[in-house]
């Protein structure tokens, strides 16, 4: 009987650890939802308010046809912020410029 109990526990752990797989289309939908929620004024510092997360969750799932949790969206937001920070640190170290001052182009020293 112990084997059935451990199988059930393993299954519960696997279900709790489901990871969202982000396709390019879903990235665009998420960013669009984030822009929309920001325009609605649901930001608090560098992140969304509770209402903003709920609204972002609603918009993303409706437009992407997914049933992802707010936690999955928050985790993705955090991962994107980390990636963005690391990219700009790398660009600064290599003296490569990218941004509004270059018109969105990547400008590298010769």
From TrEMBL:
Pfam families: Myb_DNA-bind_3. Residues 21-95 form the Myb/SANT-like domain. This is Myb/SANT-like domain-containing protein.
């Amino acid at each position: 009987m112990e084997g059935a109990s451990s199988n059930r526990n393993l299954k519960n752990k696997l279900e709790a650890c489901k990871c969202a797989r982000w396709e390019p289309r879903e990235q665009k939908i998420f960013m669009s939802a984030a822009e929309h929620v920001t325009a609605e004024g649901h930001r608090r510092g560098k992140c969304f308010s509770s209402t903003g997360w709920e609204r972002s969750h609603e918009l993303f799932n409706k437009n992407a046809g997914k049933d992802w949790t707010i936690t999955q969206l928050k985790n993705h937001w955090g991962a994107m912020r980390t990636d963005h920070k690391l990219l700009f640190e790398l660009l600064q170290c290599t003296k490569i410029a990218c941004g509004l001052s270059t018109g969105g182009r990547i400008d590298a020293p010769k």
